[in-house]
Amino acid sequence: MIRARVLILPKRTVFDPQGEAVRHALGHFGLAAAERVRVGKEIEIEIPGEGDQAKIRSQLETIARDFLANPVVEEFELHIEGLP
């Protein structure tokens, strides 16, 4: 079984109002030292582990880049478990 996790966050150059609201709220919990907070989403994909592993990795990267993340305002990190 292959498990892919795609972490999608706003680009550092894009204003993140949700992250800014969380950063501000952290001060009320005694963590006023937080300099930056970004709020994103994580998507987990599980697929069978059979098949061409290079092709699977390439497909997952394409899906993350072209379908899950908005390349104009977001960046992504792809973490794959179960592939060498």
UniProtKB/TrEMBL annotation:
GO CC annotations on file: cytoplasm
Gene Ontology process terms (BP): 'de novo' IMP biosynthetic process
Cell compartment(s), UniProt: Cytoplasm
- Annotated EC: 6.3.5.3
**Protein family according to the UniProt entry:** Belongs to the PurS family.
Functional summary from the UniProt entry: Part of the phosphoribosylformylglycinamidine synthase complex involved in the purines biosynthetic pathway. Catalyzes the ATP-dependent conversion of formylglycinamide ribonucleotide (FGAR) and glutamine to yield formylglycinamidine ribonucleotide (FGAM) and glutamate. The FGAM synthase complex is composed of three subunits. PurQ produces an ammonia molecule by converting glutamine to glutamate. PurL transfers the ammonia molecule to FGAR to form FGAM in an ATP-dependent manner.
> PANTHER family this protein is in?
PHOSPHORIBOSYLFORMYLGLYCINAMIDINE SYNTHASE SUBUNIT PURS
* Name under which the protein is recorded: Phosphoribosylformylglycinamidine synthase subunit PurS
| Higher taxonomy | Bacteria, Pseudomonadati, Verrucomicrobiota, Methylacidimicrobium
